[in-house]
Design brief:
Elements: E1 13-14, E2 22-23, H1 48-52, E3 60-65, E4 74-79, E5 87-93, H2 104-109, E6 113-118, H3 127-143, E7 151-161, H4 163-174, E8 180-184, E9 200-205, H5 217-223, E10 230-235, H6 248-261, E11 281-286
Parallel strand pairs: 5-6, 5-7, 7-8, 8-9, 9-10
Antiparallel strand pairs: 1-2, 3-4, 4-6, 10-11
Length: about 290
Amino acid sequence: MRSRRHPIVASLGTFVAGAALVVTGLVATPTAGGAQTNPFQRGPAPTNAILEAASGPFAVASITVARQSNFGGGTIYYPTATNQGTFGGVAVSPGFLSPQVAWTGPRIASHGFVVFTIDTNTIIDFPSSRADQLVAALNYLTQTSSVRNRVDASRLAVMGHSMGGGGTLEAVRAHPEYQAAVALQPWDIFQNFSGVRVPSMIIGAQNDTVASVTAHSEPFYQQIPAASEKAYVELAGQDHFVGLTANTTQAKFAVVWLKRYVDNDTRYEPFMCPRPSGPTIVEYRDTCPG
């Protein structure tokens, strides 16, 4: 599985005749095993217990954002730790007629992200509008919000449910500089996502009759090029509105995907590859090698 970043900086040594080696560059600190330290790594090594718990290792606080001119305001959740450097940022859009996807804020932020769960301009906004509002929310988060200094503006992701999930995929299609996308039971029409170049996870639901996996999630997954990195999870026995709940399997994979691609944290790869299975999963597909 390819890495989205290469944080290791190679140093050049200069030999002077008969003299010792002089190192002139900056060298990342090696770990005990000889590998280079990931500067974006946040939190302890992941375990199933950590990922499936109701909250992660970071304490979280929140602030309310009033309605803005280009999106409907929302709530920002952020880790209270001040000794970890900056965190990746995630904006989350609700679906048609829906409020904020409330569970995503505290759950994802507790794993080391600044998460902005937004309200949309109106509850009937279609996916393209929701895509624009996700972009506007990330701009607000990184440029205007009171926690902007906690966010690494180079490590951003989008997420959404239903029409917000469709908006999520439209947003990353238009913004290849983003690091990750997670679409929960996405709904969209007259769109093609073959232009997506951002690692994208789609989480469908077996009993979804609003955005059925055969008409939405699966075709969207198939359209995204394998070279972009992608994953498809189908939740067993769930319907369209599972996206509004803190379903353990859904939350676990959303965190895993964001940690892997926003934090570039390869410690999370064993939860993706080999492909997971179990009673809560109908199907899991991804671009794991082999």
